[in-house]
TrEMBL record:
<protein>
    <submittedName>
        <fullName>Asparagine synthase</fullName>
    </submittedName>
</protein>
<feature type="domain" description="Asparagine synthetase">
    <location>
        <begin position="231"/>
        <end position="467"/>
    </location>
</feature>
<dbReference type="InterPro" id="IPR014729">
    <property type="entry name" value="Rossmann-like_a/b/a_fold"/>
</dbReference>
<dbReference type="Pfam" id="PF00733">
    <property type="entry name" value="Asn_synthase"/>
</dbReference>
<dbReference type="GO" id="GO:0006529">
    <property type="term" value="P:asparagine biosynthetic process"/>
</dbReference>
<dbReference type="InterPro" id="IPR001962">
    <property type="entry name" value="Asn_synthase"/>
</dbReference>
<dbReference type="GO" id="GO:0004066">
    <property type="term" value="F:asparagine synthase (glutamine-hydrolyzing) activity"/>
</dbReference>
Length: 602
């Protein structure tokens, strides 16, 4: 992320920051508890211990610890700030670091969680999408809050034994992330979006601000343009400071919608940038990204995956290595099916990707829908929480139904699915997955900025879901991209009966690019990789038994190639977590795995 001070000077280095707050329920915090907190950071901070620096503050019954891998104290705001008798910590970034004195206040620009302390008082607060998380628990003597779940769990214990909440992990197996405020660690919960945990003189309270309600679609064209204009201004404000960095932003560009918005945004803001696409030359992402780069006149680099000499297979890391790195970085809250950025020495080069761009399109759960009737939307909520019910135990399925119940009780289904996306897909999946990228680079995330999220959620869900909003936004920012094809499905509003105003503005055809190059080793793992996934999962069925039916798991792996690769990876991740792969030393000397293409002629 990019931060600036009140004079407009931009600090282009964002490193990981970790916070831990302790508040005694009575009296003072014992010295042994403080010593233990200091000793735990190497377990919970996924960077080499030699690069960790820390600060701490202690007051009456309250302590606030802060650690970072920042090499010096030049970043603003500092790791801990003192203002008006308060100690303030910031995890994430503010659009203007001078706003640190306003915290906790989730209406300011940026993407952050805030930590404050003074004598007898500790608070931790999340912003609108809680992508910078706060985890909390308590013991008979302490309230504990921190930005890393494992750190909170261990700080609340007297020993180093990790106790897992196995029932909570049922959602990890179903979806590969948490559809709840639970964590893998018993007793540790995630604070909700726009919420504040406050401990004052040993007593804890939690307050929550609801997400914005969407306004109806403006009837007048002028008002529609004004509403989209507010969203455009919020987006532009996130990237305009990048203009004077002295080197171009690297945008990971695909053939889809969300990174196209970012390419248009950087173009409109006159921010120098180049684009990179991962994939084979025949992949739709590569084909369309090349077209976008040409239209905007920017450099385009294609990064192909490692392949055998005959190009009939790819070489991938051993799944145990992949799982260890994912557990270490994401703390068991993201599946190893996902590609998590591994640790490398920090680079100051600013990067950008389209993650969480579905916020501008009413969320990924709504985007899965073709039928927007009440019954169909209700079924989407039910299947989101209760996916693959046959695989799970009765207790796990009942737990899933309990988690779904508050969302099913909402009368506005589009809003429920929209907010589900913010609460869980962004606030849990993205929150844990982005920890990898924060260790090694400058990921700029306009779609996560508070002002952008608030502006988007204030627009009617059906309007955003039609994709009229982002298509208009792209035309406003970069008219040159008007007729560039879209990968996958056509624009939603174009595929439907279009209003007359669109017939005059749309090109004759918005084609969907179709090629034979969309194969991925993760979705077609082949027999060799399947064997490794099978061996681990079936060998740990006792650990998984509280949440899955062993016979159904065996049936899943019955064929030479697993039929549901994502589900297999989710099971693999949870099984390695429960059997103690992490915390622990990384596995060594594991061979890379060859995954053959099912269609090598292509």
């Amino acid at each position: 992320m990019i931060t600036c001070d009140k004079w407009g000077n931009w600090d282009k280095h964002l490193y990981v920051r970790v916070y831990l707050g302790l508040a005694a329920k009575r009296g003072e915090i014992p010295a042994g508890v403080l010593d233990r907190a200091r000793s735990l950071i190497e377990f919970a901070f996924p960077v080499p211990p030699e690069v960790i620096r820390g600060r701490e503050w202690h007051g009456r019954g309250v302590s606030l610890f802060a650690w970072t891998n920042e090499p010096d104290d030049s970043r603003r705001p500092p790791l801990l700030t003192e203002h008006d008798g308060r100690i303030i910590g910031l995890n994430g970034h503010l659009a203007d670091p001078a706003d640190v004195t306003r915290l906790p206040d989730d209406s300011v620009g940026g993407c952050f969680s805030a930590w404050t302390a003074r004598d007898g008082e500790l608070s931790a607060s999340t912003a609108i999408n809680r992508v910078c998380p706060v985890f909390h628990t308590e013991t008979p003597d302490l309230h504990v809050a921190g930005s890393r779940a494992l750190l909170v769990h261990l700080a609340a214990r007297e020993d180093d034994r990790v106790e897992h909440d196995v029932l909570a992990l049922q959602t990890m197996v179903r979806q590969g992330f948490f559809l709840s405020d639970e964590t893998p660690y018993k007793g540790v919960s995630a604070l909700r979006p726009s919420s504040r945990l406050l401990v004052r003189d040993g007593a804890r309270t939690v307050t929550e601000t609801p997400l914005p309600r969407a306004e109806p679609v403006p009837a007048a064209a002028r008002r529609r343009r004004a509403a989209i204009g507010e969203l455009a201004e919020a987006l532009l404000a996130t990237v305009e400071p990048l203009r004077d960095l002295g080197e171009p932003v690297n945008l990971a560009l695909t053939g889809g919608r969300d990174t196209r918005v970012l390419a248009a945004l950087l173009h409109a803001a006159r921010v120098p940038f180049r684009v990179t696409t991962n994939g084979l030359d025949t992949h739709p992402d590569v084909i369309i990204a090349r077209m976008i780069a040409a239209r905007l006149g920017v450099e385009h680099t294609v990064i192909a995956p490692p392949q055998t000499a005959a190009k009939d297979a790819v070489l991938v890391e051993h799944p145990l290595s992949r799982a260890w790195e994912t557990l270490r970085t994401c703390e068991g809250m993201t599946s190893a099916y996902e590609t998590i950025v591994s640790y490398l020495p920090y680079s100051g080069k600013p990067t950008m990707s389209g993650q969480s761009g579905e916020t501008l399109r009413a969320g990924s759960l709504n985007l899965l829908q073709t039928d927007l009737g009440d019954k169909a939307l209700r079924r989407r909520i039910e299947t989101t929480f209760g996916k693959d019910a046959k695989l799970f135990t009765a207790e796990a399925n009942e737990h899933a139904r309990e988690l779904a119940r508050p969302w099913l009780d909402r009368t506005d289904r589009l809003e429920a699915l929209d907010h589900l996306y913010i609460w869980y897909k962004v606030g849990r999946w993205q929150a844990s997955a982005r920890a990898g990228s924060l260790r090694r680079g400058d990921p700029v995330r306009p779609f996560l900025d508070n002002r952008v999220v608030r502006a988007a959620l204030s627009l009617d869900q059906g309007w955003r879901l039609s994709e009229e909003v982002i298509y208009t936004l792209i035309l406003r920012l970069a008219p040159k991209l008007r007729d560039v094809p879209i990968e996958g499905k056509p624009w939603r509003f174009a595929a439907q009966r279009t209003p007359s105003r669109w017939r005059r503005r749309l090109p004759e055809h918005l084609p969907t690019a179709r090629t034979a190059g969309g194969w991925s080793w993760r979705t077609s793992p082949g027999p060799a990789l399947t064997d490794l996934l099978r061996e681990q999962v079936l060998g740990s069925l006792d650990a998984l038994a509280p949440i899955v039916n062993p016979d159904e798991v065996r049936a899943l792996f019955a064929g030479p190639v697993v039929a549901k690769p994502a589900l297999a990876w989710h099971l693999y991740t949870v099984s390695t977590l429960l059997t103690g792969l992490y915390p622990g030393k990384p596995p060594e000397n594991l061979p890379r795995i060859t995954v053959s293409r099912p269609d090598p002629a292509r």
